[in-house]
Amino acid sequence: MINIKLLPKAYTEVLEILKYVNKEDYEKIPRYIIENMEKEKDIEYQYSVTNFIDFNEQEMMKETEVILAVLFRDYWATKEQKMIIRAKEMKSYK
Amino acid sequence: MRKNVEECLNALYPDIDSLTPDEMKKYEKEKRFLEAYWPEFSEMFERRKSMIEKVGINRYTRLVIDLCKKQHDPETIIIDYIEGIAEAVGENSFINENFESFVNMLSFGRKKEKEGKDAREDKTPISLDTVFDLTEEFLGRIDESQGLLDEFKNLRANGGIELLDPYGEKESHYSHCENKIRYKFDGTVNSAYTLVHEFMHHLCTKQSETVMGYHNFTLLREFLSIYYENAFIDFMDEKGMLPNGTEPLMASRFKSEYEMDPDNCLGIYFDCYGKFKRDGSIDREGIEEVLKERFPDIEDADELWNHGAEMLTNFSEEHYFPIEIGAGLTMYKFGTAIAHYTPQTPEMHKKVHKLASVIKDGEHDFQAIQQYLLTIGQQEFEFSKQVDDKHEDEPKILTTMDIARRTLPNAELNDKNIISRIISRWRERANDRIGGDRND
Fold it and tell me: What is the pTM of this model?
């Protein structure tokens, strides 16, 4: 279960990661999401992306993983990918 | 060197006098290819022929696969490869005798790889009107019913082709939402073929919306577009529009940075091809079966199988690939497209391109070829990422697939629901603020 109290730090991490996403994909995320994360992020918290070669090895909080997964599912995934994600979600729900 | 190229070609085409016009065209293409990009290959070819005779094709293929697994380390390749060959043929003296030629071959490959990033472009001028005329003639030729040509003319007449700023940042693309091709034309043959590419996206999207409702099968769309893009390049060459030949344009695709999943996309086509070879034919059910085998974990997603199979069958038999050429050639076409699609390095491109030809001939071990492609696809992909990362001045980019692979497996549904609820609240607040119902 994600920890709501850690979300401001997660927003900081998400916003940092989004800096390296190309402009076209970045703009697919509704502006209000970016604005709210900017507003609620932890400005003291320092985070940087260090592992571009293998992003799987990039350290990030569990909360960050979930936010990015939702962003991918809702705004970046193709129809085919969405179907696959939903099928897997349905399976995990059962 | 020239002599070697000819010898190599003679071995590939022993009876040149009896070649059909199509075979002769292929011969000429092969010749240009060898002369322009891989002179040392001719020498390699002789060695290969002799080795195959001695060790058999299966063992030879395995050695080549081993070689490709080590592509990130050329020095190791040389040593391992030569040792492997020496072991296979049982002649230790082979190492010393042939060391230099192997070093030359490999260093040549590395050099071309480096040059490929910026040297291969063809800036031969061409007018926009000529591009439109050529495109129309091309479409009329590949579809005797003239349906494609009519569609192109309609699209053009209805403002469906919009020119982009040739100096702007945006590249040519097809906008599904607006049903519009945005075409970046720079006045040279280097951008002439992208119009056909984007038009094929338009066709696929239109076709899938009306018939299949499945417009987002991205990988299929790219393959088809790239196949016809290359066909158009050949067509331009045939028309004498390419004084520098086809290779510079085909090589330009290396600069693209498409995201792909080599495992899945290659797998689908090669599974289909394998089934075609085993059963002698492949139909809708066969393709559906292949898709289900490839994605066993998501059996609930019936729609995926139905639409995916329908789309592949449609492509194979009814629309863009006439029924008479069958699934085998369709898979070859996909193989060719894969060869040009894979945006790794020129060195890899040549190898995969050769393999695409091999696949068409159907003389080689399918499993070995599949393994070869999958292996070098992944190896080269990793390698190119490492090379790119060394260029510190270049911007670092994360793709959405990088993010998906990193985050999706770990995110649980309950957690996603919590985040979705938070996002919904933000959306409601944003809507309240602007007094409307917009989402962005």
Answer: 0.37
